[in-house]
Amino acid sequence: MGDEYGSTPCCFLPDFITVILNAEPIGFKGKVAVYGDFPRVYRNLADLIATGDRIFHIESVQSYHSSLIGNYMAALTPGSGTLKSTTLEGAFIEALFLLSIFEGSTTNNPNGTRRLTMTLNPGTKKLTGSWTFDCVPALDTNGTPTYPIVTHLSGVGFNPGTAVKSANLPAAIVELASQINFREGDAAKNPGAAQKITALDNSGEDRTSTGAFDFDLNLTVNVDGSTKLVGATYLLD
After folding, report:
1. Which residues contact 207 (CB under 8 A, 6 or more apart)?
2. For the whole model, what pTM was predicted?
3. pLDDT value at position 55?
């Protein structure tokens, strides 16, 4: 946010954003205002002036879009699988944390092999990191190269449910990352043009599958003092 602009609207919502206030969605018909910490949209200038709300300069559409990120969702049906999240972004982050927990277990990871690096920054509400998983390159019945992921964990009863098709947790991470990456390349499904998954690569020569991530998080502290971390959604179905 920048300088206060009195009662003059500073910018318009792009046509891909539909904001739900206390009533129905009004999409591109509104002007942007910020009052306190809550984004608001008004049908016209008269409605805005009547409220007496202050208008603030918005540095960029992209940064403002990130504050409205909760209005976006790529839905996922987990079924009875291991992953319980109901959004694509949430399932990916859930899978990352599960893998990190299992990698820290001497039971599930007796060799202490670390294939995932991950950094959580509560101040910036960011989760960043990368992975390098082993894969076994092969050709399918059509002669198309495939790169099945081999798990380095043991004793992990991963159930794909209906969220993914992969039979193990590292493979599920790559599958979810690929789904996210595909949507990120589709302007209709990624109206904010965000790139949260990068460096996806399968190497037959190195027999590895690699990728990196940079995700926004929603962090809350519950009444009992416990902390809840949820992946911020930004994609559409």
Report:
1. 134, 135, 136, 137
2. 0.70
3. 34
